[in-house]
Design a protein that fits this description.
Number of helices: 11
Number of strands: 15
Largest sheet: 6 strands, mixed
Shape: globular
Helix content: 25-40%
CATH architecture of the largest domain: 3-Layer(aba) Sandwich
CATH topology of the largest domain: Rossmann fold
Structural class: alpha/beta
CATH class of the largest domain: Alpha Beta
């Protein structure tokens, strides 16, 4: 279901006022376009690499596309749901999977008489996916977190390392290859600008002003300080990581991950596995805080203070990005405020978290809910 804007209850504009006429006309003209795109990035899986050899180029291409569809479907399921629910979709046939795909595109295509190589980009049908989740009684997450800047701190031999070499933990993150995720990861460059903005001790102690400074450089909303310790366990090197991520509104996500080394495995390889374990943990925690289902919807009346038409147009644009919003009804407007009736998936706390990813705050003031920019400059 796409979000829509209704106008059944517009009232209280001063009739005959020049500004009220222009305001109402402009509001109607622009607000009727307040809909989420039928297909959004959440349901897009890109750059599935296929390489298939068959009896002919045509057969190789057909097999490659089917293989790509299956892998893209699996990637989308792992992106939106938690691991314990994956197995319910493992046995889907190629025909079943194709019902959920809207279209696909091809890039970097190469063919020979018997071989087909390409990168495939798939776009899935949100409504069909929603129905599938509902039929299987599966909760899903659609809210994408703000990009997270990871700061890999290594404690070794009494030293605290962030930018200094050899920080094998940071090197492992530099080799990280991102997969489709609701938690976009950014790894810092580690150049002189980074060194000047944040020291290892400052990262370890979570110096707020320094973390904000380096976050501003990378234009991210959150940072995750990931402290790794390497310790010996008989013949292997084990890794213990303590994570401190400020991705949750009003709280921080503290977590610990322990990765046991394997026999004959280098510490570099163990650290590389640790990177993916940490990402998996962050994704799991994020999804747990954002899981929703179609059978749980909430309605809420909110007031949006505005100073001018631009304020409303910016707010309208930001609301259109909130995936869990199902309907937005305009019930009152004036030159200073707009009142909306929101219908959304999940509870209020999940809407608060989703809005925060777009720098919007939902605040309860007695019996009234106010929707305002978290940063006053957002709508200026």
């Amino acid at each position: 279901m796409s979000m829509r804007m209704n106008f059944g209850l517009i009232r209280k504009l001063r009739p005959g006022s020049y500004w009220s006429t222009i305001f109402l006309f402009s509001l109607t003209m622009f607000s009727t376009g307040l809909t989420q795109p039928l297909f959004g990035d959440v349901f897009d899986i890109e750059e599935i690499i296929v390489d298939v050899t068959a009896n002919s180029a045509a057969e190789a291409k057909n097999r490659a596309i089917k293989e790509g569809e299956a892998r893209a479907f699996s990637s989308l399921i792992s992106k939106l749901t938690i691991r314990t629910d994956y197995e319910q979709f493992a046995q889907f046939s190629a025909e079943e999977i194709s019902n959920y795909i809207h279209n696909f595109s091809v890039s970097e295509e190469k063919t020979s008489k018997v071989r087909y190589i390409a990168k495939l980009n798939f776009r899935f049908k949100p409504e069909a996916m929603h129905r599938m989740f509902e039929e299987h009684k599966i909760l899903f997450a659609e809210t994408v977190s703000k990009p997270v800047l990871v700061l890999p701190v290594l404690l070794s031999g009494g030293a605290i390392m962030l930018w200094d070499d050899p920080n094998l933990w940071r090197q492992a993150w530099r080799k990280y290859k991102a997969k489709p995720s609701l938690v976009p990861i950014i790894v810092p460059i580690g150049d002189l600008k980074d060194v000047a903005l944040l020291g290892a001790e400052q990262a370890l102690s979570r110096d707020v002003s320094r973390l904000e400074a380096i976050g501003k450089r990378y234009k991210v909303g959150t940072t995750a300080v990931l402290v790794a310790r390497i310790f010996d366990s008989e013949l292997e090197k084990n890794i213990e990581i303590e994570g401190n991520w400020d991705g949750v509104v009003g709280a921080r996500d503290f977590f610990k991950v322990i990765v046991e080394g394997k026999k004959n495995e280098t510490v570099e390889d163990t650290l590389s596995r640790a990177v993916y374990k940490v990402v998996e943990k962050m994704e799991y925690n994020w999804k747990q805080g954002n899981l929703v289902g179609l059978n749980k919807q909430t309605a809420l009346n909110v007031t949006v203070p505005i100073n001018n038409l631009d304020d409303w147009l910016m707010m309208r644009e930001l609301l259109a990005r909130i995936k869990i919003l199902r309907d937005v009804d305009l019930v009152f407007l004036s030159l200073r405020e707009i009142r909306l009736h929101l219908q959304f998936l999940g509870e209020v706390k999940k809407l608060v978290l989703a809005l925060a990813q777009e720098d919007l705050s939902l605040i309860q003031d007695n019996d009234e809910w106010l929707l305002i920019p978290a940063n006053p400059n957002v709508t200026n």
